[in-house]
Amino acid sequence: MNDTVVLHVDATPSAPALLLRPWRSEDAPALVEVYRDPALRRWTTSVVDDEADALRWVGTQQEAWTAGHRFAFAVLEARPDAEPGPPLGNLVLKRIPPGGPTAEVGYWTAAPARGRGVAPRALEALTGWAFDTLGPGGLQRLELLHQVDNTASCRVAEKSRYAFDRVLPATPPAYPLDGHLHTRLRSAPGQLR
Question: Which InterPro entries does the entry mention (predicted)?
Fold first, then answer.
């Protein structure tokens, strides 16, 4: 797997084109701004208070990518004839056992990107990439978890065709409330996912 993977999401009549690429050190200042949002801090476990924190976070994502067990993508607005805009979100494929049948996806969106269809469209791109890249003979199921009170994440899961599977019991301190588990299965070749 190589860190030059770039995923493109076409524009829609109501939403811009998106670009998903691995996180870079130059994203650190924008990441600090994104993490000033209290709503984001509520749903994530990472702490990014300053540029040093952001650089550590990006470094961790890069190391995990190189090791092949976690693939985190910055979600950017793709602009024709210009550099992509600042990060609108994060998509991650994680908990990937070598050759194993199941992995997990996760995401967050920056405040300005919420309600614009960024997360479901980006998640759809990541899902297709994961199954196409790791699926043949391996990855067959993706799992998406969120706390029961995170209704926005539930909507993203549903829009991205991740079916509700079951309620998972709380496991404090990381998950102080019960959670929802959604899943998506790899389709047979030639079938819509």
Answer: Acyl_CoA_acyltransferase (IPR016181), GNAT_dom (IPR000182), Ribosomal_N-acetyltransferase (IPR051908)
Cα–Cα distance measured from residue 191 to residue 122, given in angstroms and rounded to the nearest whole number? 20
Among 193, 143, 192, residue whose Cα is nearest residue 164? 143
Mean pLDDT computed over 138-146: 93
Measured distance CA(52)–CA(56) in Å, rounded: 6
Is the pTM higher than 0.85? The answer reads yes
CA 53 to chain centroid, in Å, comes to 20
Q: Where are the domains of the chain?
A: 7-139
- Cβ(118)–Cβ(15) under 8 Å? yes
Which architecture does CATH list for 7-139?
3-Layer(aba) Sandwich (3.40)
Task: Give pLDDT tens digits for 54-113.
Answer: 999 999 999 999 998 899 999 999 988 888 889 999 999 998 887 789 999 999 999 999
